[in-house]
Design brief:
about 130 residues, mainly beta, six-stranded antiparallel beta barrel, flat
Length: about 130
């Protein structure tokens, strides 16, 4: 079974990139809802059970957007995430640092099989799913 035949998540595709925050997708009023979150993604690989049978696909999410306008046959989606640009001043920069270190799993490093997307950039034609 091929990767694309396991992709049951796809509701449409990127039709056009309007600017660095906005795209048009071919999902209209039938499925689209203003405010609904969608994800542009890439199917990277199949996930297999211990017997080697395909059970699902691993999806790399390129970005999450929100439907801001829904028409009959298409929707306009925009990335609504923002970052703070305020500056914090303290007596010492050392007081502002928050250091966290994640504790790794106790694993055999030879069992590591990373999953990497072929293309992390959003492109016309990329599949889209609900978030």
């Amino acid at each position: 079974m091929g990767i694309n035949s396991l992709d049951k998540y796809c509701i449409g595709n990127v039709l056009r990139i309007i600017d660095d925050r906005t795209i048009i997708i071919n999902v209209g009023r039938e499925k689209g809802i203003i405010g609904k979150k969608i994800q542009v993604y890439e199917v990277v690989d199949t996930i297999k059970d211990l017997e080697g049978c395909d059970i699902d696909v691993f999806i790399y999410v390129k970005d999450t957007l929100e439907m801001i306008q829904v028409e009959n046959n298409y929707s306009i989606c925009r990335k609504m995430e923002y970052r703070e640009t305020t500056f914090k001043f303290a007596l010492s920069p050392l007081l502002e640092q928050d250091n966290k270190e994640y504790i790794p799993l106790n694993i055999d490093k030879q069992d590591i099989a990373p999953l990497h997307p072929k293309d992390p950039l959003i492109r016309v034609g990329d599949p889209v799913k609900f978030a």
